[in-house]
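Retro notes (design track)

What went well: tokenization of the new backbones is finally stable.
What didn't: we kept losing track of which sequence belonged to which structure.
Fix going forward: every design gets posted as structure first, then sequence, in one message. First example under the new rule, 402 residues:
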């Protein structure tokens, strides 16, 4: 018997995403490996997603990312419309054994409200768990709804009621880790990269000030609110400043961006992103928040680029100080650590990534959690030995395994 999982990637971006897209990248990395392990996947996403799955379902034709930046009364219906479709899709498909959901807040609430006859569900927490105290502080998903984190540090911050539903954490993975230990290191440039959304928690303003003070070239890659290209942000009217990340950019980051020592290149995707990261001297994460999962961290390591970061959130779990990166809890030390990053070996970063952060490692762990979640919901575990007997019986055309 193979598992059928409804994988809910949400309504925000297509899977795989064209450029920026943390959660969508995780889903795009996980699903092919699960299918290789024999899991059947119904992907709930948006209409222009191209990720192969047994079936794809959607409400919106394209990603609703831009709506995310609008006020609550304009945006709240988007996630709910998507989740209504997910509930219908599950009800119409009795073969769904488990729902794996990735939609912030609304996903968890809807799963819990689905009632006892719905399949067991695993909700992956991709964000800072200090958010949504009203929901997390009193959450009750019974035996049927479980959560997992993307790092131990993240789960440690969860309110007790949420932690009571946790089945542990799964570190993020990247396809770039596959065979990373066998890749050669490209010639390194002098530049340092900050890869990620431009937002106060990621600390681009601090990175930019350090670049000027310590004299290293810094490239900022990532969107500012809904704007992926500098020309689009430049053309935006004043209303765009309602967005806190746009305000952060104008007030705290842009004054340090001179187009020479510090440059913003917008969102970079695909080969261009990999090249930018692989040739960087270091990937800098001057964090001002507890980074929950850090996809860009594992991507940097897989591309042989040491990580220089504030030792917050998941960073100490993903990066070994002195081997694959340099960590400090004093942000004023980051500039000196950037200058020292050239002493670290690219090959060591790639080796660690190949051992720890491959999609296969992540998928094996999720499969284990799916069985655990089903077991906790009172559904007997399917033992691998038994699966083999069933397969053998099917291939012999006999029902003797029953
Ligand atoms: N990303 C990208 N291009 C950019 C900026 C970011 O492809 O210009 C990707 C990055 O490589 C990573 C994801 O977006 O895969 C960001 O995920 P992460 O967990 O690092 O941060 P989040 O934004 O989810 O907090």
């Amino acid at each position: 018997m193979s598992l059928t999982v409804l994988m809910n990637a949400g309504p925000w971006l297509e899977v795989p995403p064209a450029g920026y897209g943390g959660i969508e990248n995780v889903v795009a990395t996980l699903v092919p490996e699960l299918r290789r392990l024999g899991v059947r996947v119904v992907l709930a996403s948006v209409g222009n997603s191209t990720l192969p799955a047994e079936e794809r379902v959607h409400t919106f034709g394209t990603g609703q990312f831009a709506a995310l930046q609008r006020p609550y009364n304009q945006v709240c219906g988007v996630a709910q419309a998507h989740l209504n479709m997910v509930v219908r899709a599950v009800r119409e498909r009795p073969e769904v054994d488990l729902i794996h959901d990735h939609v912030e807040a609304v996903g968890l609430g809807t799963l819990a409200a689905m009632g006892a006859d719905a399949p067991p569900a695993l909700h992956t927490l991709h964000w800072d768990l200090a958010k949504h105290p009203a929901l997390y502080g009193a959450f009750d998903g019974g035996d049927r709804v479980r959560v997992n984190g993307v790092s131990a540090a993240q789960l440690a911050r969860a309110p007790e009621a949420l932690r009571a539903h946790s089945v542990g954490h799964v570190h993020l993975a990247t396809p770039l880790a596959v065979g990373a230990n066998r890749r050669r290191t490209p010639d390194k440039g002098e530049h340092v990269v900050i890869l990620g959304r431009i937002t106060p928690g990621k600390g681009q303003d601090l990175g930019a000030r350090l670049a000027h003070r310590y004299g290293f070239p810094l490239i900022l890659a990532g969107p500012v609110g809904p704007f992926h290209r500098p020309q689009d942000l430049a053309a935006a009217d004043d209303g765009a400043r309602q967005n806190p990340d746009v305000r952060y950019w104008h007030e705290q980051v842009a004054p340090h961006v001179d187009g020479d020592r510090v440059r913003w290149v917008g969102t970079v995707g695909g080969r261009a992103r990999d090249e930018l990261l692989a040739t960087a001297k270091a990937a800098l994460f001057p964090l001002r928040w507890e980074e929950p999962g850090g996809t860009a961290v594992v991507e940097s390591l897989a591309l042989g680029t040491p990580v220089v970061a504030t030792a917050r959130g998941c960073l100490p779990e993903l990066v070994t100080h002195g081997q694959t990166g340099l960590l400090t809890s004093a942000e004023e030390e980051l500039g000196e650590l950037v200058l020292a990053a050239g002493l670290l070996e690219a090959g060591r970063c790639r080796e660690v990534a190949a051992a720890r952060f491959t999609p296969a490692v992540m998928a094996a762990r999720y499969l284990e959690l799916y069985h655990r979640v089903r077991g906790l919901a009172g559904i007997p575990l399917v033992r691998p030995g038994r699966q083999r007997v069933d397969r053998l019986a099917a291939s012999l055309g006999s029902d003797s395994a029953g």
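Added context from the reviewer: Residues 19-22, 25, 195-197, 221-222, 267-269, 273, 293-296, 299 surround uridine-5'-diphosphate (CB under 6 Å).
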